């Protein structure tokens, strides 16, 4: 087994060792290696949330490839000893049954034939399949000596050349651990030791080793490859949950359960449906992607160059909402309605065409807000750069130290964190049926506080520090309240 894994390891680059920004204040199990809680706040010294306070808390650790190899080897060896099977067979069983060792052992003890073909049956099939002094391969229809025929546990026998060609074709198509017997409708999987024994192309052997190792990682419920480009880090967690993981090697943030960009409070299946819908309807939604709108009062064209939706016309000084173009005075935290879609109460009685238009209207309502927050997040990066430049200027002019102005960077980091969560509330709301009123109420509160924070951050030099820090506290509490009530645990 170690030789197989060493062969696999030769095709993987060694992962970077990663640290942690803050350690859990909770004591972990003695039998478990140290896990980390990592928070995406641009390495600022914010307080580390406790397990009970933060609904996004998740224990995980980064592994090097050699550590992941050792962990899987131990599980494979344990199954080998329990079932008295070879490592290749144990690996195949673990892959097919998602590494559920107890389930495999229990089912095998009740019915061994359900997992491994009985050796007498295999021998009989071998005898039935090879008739005559020079039997014929049923694939290539050529005669060979008996020693040219080989087979797997099911007993189906074919010539080595046909097996070799079968393996080469499958591996080139990206199939490795899922290679099945060549016999018609035979679902028996081919073990890797048999592949190595027959496969003649050394380059394809290397490719098989690499891909089969990847299959082992992907199938393991406690392991996940970092989806970052050219990143070889493997994340290990205690449980398979839709929680946030930040890779310290490539800096991306993703969901441990599905591997997509982190998407709380939206569930994995819902965000997949939403992204598919956005992709399918992308042409329909193109018309709302413009960066300019007319002032609703003086009609001058205005370009949005910041993340804040609170706009002020440079000509008439009218304060309005970028999303609905309404008077900003009506957008207090208690009356914020831009995030709430108003359904037509009589839509069920309308014609099919009217219902279709209403469905499109609803989708565009949520898509526009989803897309607006995505663009605002990009613009917040510009705001952060401006703040950094201004801090450097102030420090150079002896207007305080770098530490004195760190609260501005903390505010910008928290704003991005809140807006990121807010962006993913819209796919959630689009598909939501239950508790819709409560969710929309909390979403509206978060939306209002995020816009207030954004307004203050963009005007940080004229905003009192205490006022800004108070707004930060309110916005983060709104965000955590929503996640505690609606984030899938």
Automatic annotation (TrEMBL):
<keyword id="KW-0175">Coiled coil</keyword>
<keyword id="KW-0539">Nucleus</keyword>
<dbReference type="InterPro" id="IPR001841">
    <property type="entry name" value="Znf_RING"/>
</dbReference>
<feature type="compositionally biased region" description="Polar residues">
    <location>
        <begin position="1"/>
        <end position="19"/>
    </location>
</feature>
<dbReference type="GO" id="GO:0005634">
    <property type="term" value="C:nucleus"/>
</dbReference>
<feature type="domain" description="RING-type">
    <location>
        <begin position="137"/>
        <end position="188"/>
    </location>
</feature>
<dbReference type="InterPro" id="IPR013083">
    <property type="entry name" value="Znf_RING/FYVE/PHD"/>
</dbReference>
<dbReference type="GO" id="GO:0061630">
    <property type="term" value="F:ubiquitin protein ligase activity"/>
</dbReference>
<dbReference type="GO" id="GO:0008270">
    <property type="term" value="F:zinc ion binding"/>
</dbReference>
<feature type="coiled-coil region">
    <location>
        <begin position="443"/>
        <end position="485"/>
    </location>
</feature>
<dbReference type="GO" id="GO:0016567">
    <property type="term" value="P:protein ubiquitination"/>
</dbReference>
<dbReference type="Pfam" id="PF26000">
    <property type="entry name" value="UBA_ARIH2_N"/>
</dbReference>
<feature type="region of interest" description="Disordered">
    <location>
        <begin position="1"/>
        <end position="28"/>
    </location>
</feature>
<keyword id="KW-0833">Ubl conjugation pathway</keyword>
<dbReference type="Pfam" id="PF22191">
    <property type="entry name" value="IBR_1"/>
</dbReference>
<dbReference type="InterPro" id="IPR045840">
    <property type="entry name" value="Ariadne"/>
</dbReference>
<keyword id="KW-0863">Zinc-finger</keyword>
<comment type="similarity">
    <text>Belongs to the RBR family. Ariadne subfamily.</text>
</comment>
<protein>
    <recommendedName>
        <fullName>RBR-type E3 ubiquitin transferase</fullName>
        <ecNumber>2.3.2.31</ecNumber>
    </recommendedName>
</protein>
<keyword id="KW-0808">Transferase</keyword>
<dbReference type="Pfam" id="PF01485">
    <property type="entry name" value="IBR"/>
</dbReference>
<keyword id="KW-0479">Metal-binding</keyword>
<dbReference type="Pfam" id="PF19422">
    <property type="entry name" value="Ariadne"/>
</dbReference>
<keyword id="KW-0862">Zinc</keyword>
<dbReference type="InterPro" id="IPR002867">
    <property type="entry name" value="IBR_dom"/>
</dbReference>
<dbReference type="InterPro" id="IPR044066">
    <property type="entry name" value="TRIAD_supradom"/>
</dbReference>
<dbReference type="InterPro" id="IPR047556">
    <property type="entry name" value="Rcat_RBR_TRIAD1"/>
</dbReference>
<dbReference type="InterPro" id="IPR047555">
    <property type="entry name" value="BRcat_RBR_TRIAD1"/>
</dbReference>
<feature type="domain" description="RING-type">
    <location>
        <begin position="133"/>
        <end position="342"/>
    </location>
</feature>
<keyword id="KW-0677">Repeat</keyword>
<dbReference type="InterPro" id="IPR031127">
    <property type="entry name" value="E3_UB_ligase_RBR"/>
</dbReference>
């Amino acid at each position: 087994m170690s030789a197989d894994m060493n062969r696999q390891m030769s095709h993987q680059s060694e992962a970077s060792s990663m640290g942690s920004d803050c350690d859990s204040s909770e004591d972990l199990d003695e039998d478990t290696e140290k896990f980390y809680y990592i928070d995406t706040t641009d390495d600022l010294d914010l307080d580390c949330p406790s397990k009970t306070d933060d609904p996004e808390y998740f224990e995980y650790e980064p592994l090097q490839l050699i550590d992941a190899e050792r962990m899987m080897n131990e599980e494979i060896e344990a199954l080998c000893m329990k079932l008295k099977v070879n490592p290749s067979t144990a690996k195949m069983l673990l892959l097919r049954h998602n590494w559920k060792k107890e389930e495999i052992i229990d089912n095998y003890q009740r019915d061994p034939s359900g997992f491994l073909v009985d050796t007498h049956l295999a021998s009989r099939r071998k005898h039935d399949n090879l008739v005559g002094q020079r039997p014929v391969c049923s694939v290539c229809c050529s005669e060979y000596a008996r020693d040219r025929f080989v087979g797997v546990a099911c007993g189906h026998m074919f010539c080595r050349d046909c097996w070799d060609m079968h393996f080469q074709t499958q591996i080139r198509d990206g199939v490795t651990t899922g290679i099945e017997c060549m016999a018609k409708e035979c679902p028996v999987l081919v073990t890797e030791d048999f592949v190595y024994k027959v496969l003649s192309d050394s380059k394809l052997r290397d490719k098989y080793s690499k891909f089969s190792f990847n299959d082992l990682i992907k199938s393991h419920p406690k392991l996940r490859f970092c989806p970052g480009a050219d990143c070889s880090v493997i994340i290990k967690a205690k449980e398979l949950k839709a929680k946030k993981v930040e890779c310290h090697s490539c800096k991306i943030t993703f969901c441990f359960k599905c591997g997509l960009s982190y998407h709380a409070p939206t569930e994995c299946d819902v965000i997949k449906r939403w992204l598919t819908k956005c992709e399918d309807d992308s042409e329909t939604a193109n018309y709302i992607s413009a960066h300019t709108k007319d002032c609703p009062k003086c009609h001058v064209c205005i370009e949005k160059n910041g993340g804040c939706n609170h706009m002020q016309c440079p000509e008439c000084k009218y304060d309005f909402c970028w999303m609905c173009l309404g008077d900003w005075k009506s957008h207090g935290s208690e009356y914020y309605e831009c995030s709430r879609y108003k359904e037509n109460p009589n839509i069920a009685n309308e014609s099919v065409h009217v219902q279709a238009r209403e469905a499109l209207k609803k989708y565009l309502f949520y898509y526009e807000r989803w897309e607006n927050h995505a663009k605002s997040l990009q613009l917040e990066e510009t705001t952060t750069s401006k703040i950094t430049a201004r801090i450097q200027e102030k420090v150079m002019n002896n207007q305080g130290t770098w530490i004195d102005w760190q609260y501005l960077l903390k505010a910008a980091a928290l704003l991005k964190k809140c807006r990121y969560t807010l962006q993913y509330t819209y796919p959630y709301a689009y598909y939501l049926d239950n508790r819709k009123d409560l969710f929309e109420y909390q979403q509206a509160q978060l939306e209002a506080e995020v816009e207030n924070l954004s307004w203050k951050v963009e005007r940080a030099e004229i905003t009192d520090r205490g006022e800004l820090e108070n707004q930060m506290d309110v916005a983060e509490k709104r965000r955590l309240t929503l996640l505690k009530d609606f984030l899938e645990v």
